[in-house]
Specification:
3 strands, 3-stranded antiparallel sheet, alpha+beta, 27% strand, 44% helix, 2 helices, single chain, 129 residues, rod-shaped
Length: 129
């Protein structure tokens, strides 16, 4: 029986094609996941910046919860945050401090019947002028 000689590196090329396919699928799925979850984290960053920007607002400690919530909604609409419900914001008074608690989740369809849920929870103690 005669053995067939393969050129040097032929077996390595077959293995590397499969490896490259697996690596491409892995990084493609990471990219898809990042594209689905990234906007939720960017919106959360904008929400945090809007709430932290309330620090030192004129008359904040004298405002009622509805007025503070209205002020937050205006800031969020200026920053083009849609789909965020103001009911997820809790505004309480603690002496001269205003305590703002935000607790919400973002649901995205990943593919088919697979969804992602990202939960955000923040608490701020702000003092106005």
């Amino acid at each position: 029986m005669m053995k067939i000689k393969h050129p040097v590196g032929l077996k390595q090329q077959n293995g590397s094609a499969l490896t490259m396919l697996i690596v491409a699928l892995f990084f493609g799925s990471l990219l898809a996941l990042g594209l689905k979850l990234g906007p939720a984290y960017l919106d959360d960053y904008t929400i945090r910046e809007a709430l932290e920007g309330l620090e030192g607002t004129e008359g904040l400690s004298r405002m009622g919860p509805a007025e503070v919530r209205n002020l937050i909604n205006r800031r969020l609409s200026v920053n083009n945050i849609s789909g965020f419900d103001a009911k997820q914001i809790s505004v309480d008074k603690n002496g001269e401090f205003v305590v703002i608690k935000v607790d919400y989740e973002v649901r995205n369809n990943l593919f088919g019947n697979v969804d992602t849920i990202v939960h955000f929870q923040h608490e701020y103690e702000l003092k106005g002028k």
